Amino acid sequence: MRVQRFLMFQAAICFMAAPLVCMAKTSIFGIASTITRLKSSPSSCLLLKLRGGDEGRPYLPYTLAIRDSIMIAHSFHGNKNFGPAGGLHGATYTVDVEFASKELHPECNWVIDIGAASEIVADVLKQYNYKNLDNVFGEGVMTTTEFMCKVVFDGVVKKMKEKHMMNDGEKLFQGWIKVTLWESHKAWASYEGPAL
């Protein structure tokens, strides 16, 4: 809410300075707004962007999310930057995997088959559930939440390519994937990118 007010405040200031067209769109991962001059000018007034819709990430209005969890142990190998967490400790992650698409499947009216998506996520997570990540990734690898988001993302994309992407030559999912690992209600990390 605070971000929306800030964006509207900046847009209002910019609007008073020059004639503008303000196009706002809501993406599944946040608010994407662009402000464009009606008159062409070498100096642009303002580009407001919070996740999606511009430069690199397409606007994808449909989403399906799968939630699961994993329990892991890991350490940060005594690295002093991690304080008490530098030693061996456990964590339970709530894992959200969001599948975003520009349009629904023409026959089934879905983003992706929820059963297939659930199976893919479960297959990826079982590689880490009840494991010590120090043993999985080796000595010296800092298995931060951010690192694990990318690992899960890569695993989901790989499983989709192996198992579920093709059905008689037809792609079952085209779009964007976002993986969020929740350490608690206070802290989480994400990684997102195109499915293929």
Strand order in space, largest sheet: 5-3-4-8-9
Uncertain stretches: 1-52
Order of helices and strands: HEEEEHEHHEEEE
Helix share of residues? 25-40%
Distance between the termini: 33 Å
Largest sheet: 5 strands, mixed
pLDDT averaged residue by residue = 77
Please count the helical segments: 4
What structural category arises from helix and sheet content? alpha+beta
Radius of gyration: 21 Å
Shape: elongated
Q: How many beta-strand elements?
A: 9
Proportion of beta-strand residues: 25-35%
Provide the descriptors you would attach to this structure in a database record.
9 strands; alpha+beta; 196 residues; two-stranded antiparallel sheet; 4 helices; elongated
Characterise the protein shown here.
By secondary structure, the chain is of the alpha+beta class. The chain has 4 helices and 9 strands; from the N terminus they run H-E-E-E-E-H-E-H-H-E-E-E-E. It has helices at 2-17, 114-125, 133-137, 145-164; strands spanning 20-27, 30-37, 62-74, 89-101, 131-132, 166-167, 170-171, 176-182, 188-194. The strands form 3 sheets. A 5-stranded mixed beta sheet has the order 5-3-4-8-9. Helix 2 (114-125) crosses helix 4. The longest helix has 20 residues, at 145-164. The protein is elongated, with a radius of gyration of 21 Å. Residues 1-52 have low confidence and may be disordered.
